[in-house]
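New to this. Explain the following:
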Amino acid sequence: MIKPQSFWHWLAVGFGSGLAPKAPGTFGTLAALPLVILGWWQLSPLVYAALTVPLFALGVYASERTARDFGIKDPGAIVVDEWVGLWASALFLPFHWLNVLLIFVLFRIFDIAKPWPVSWADRRCQGGLGIMLDDLLAGAMACAVLQLGWRVLT
């Protein structure tokens, strides 16, 4: 059981959203949704995209430190990876309420099902990078599906 003791622990557990006793990844993703919507709606696409890199880097550090401090390889309570993965799902998509629903659903599907290359990253990468990378890839896959969908339908 993780009991956050520092800022990095709190960041890693999504400021408490990952401490849900069941389905912490889903609760973490739900908790990230308002921040993703706010950023998506208020920031230019380039600024939104540019913020992905430092958010990912902070997540790698927070995840690595939290996993090490609690002696657990990939604690389910760490959900900063879901936050960044969901953030990546919305990259360069138009803000639309249907997209809000679709980024959530598609990201969770890719995160849970772990198709290649998500499964590769999950198996091969260790530490904070391993915790974060598979979710970033799941978010990129959700984004790619939605980008394609928008181009076909509009």
Notes: The chain has a mean pLDDT of 95. Residues 7-153 form one domain. Residues 127-153 form the longest helix (27 residues).
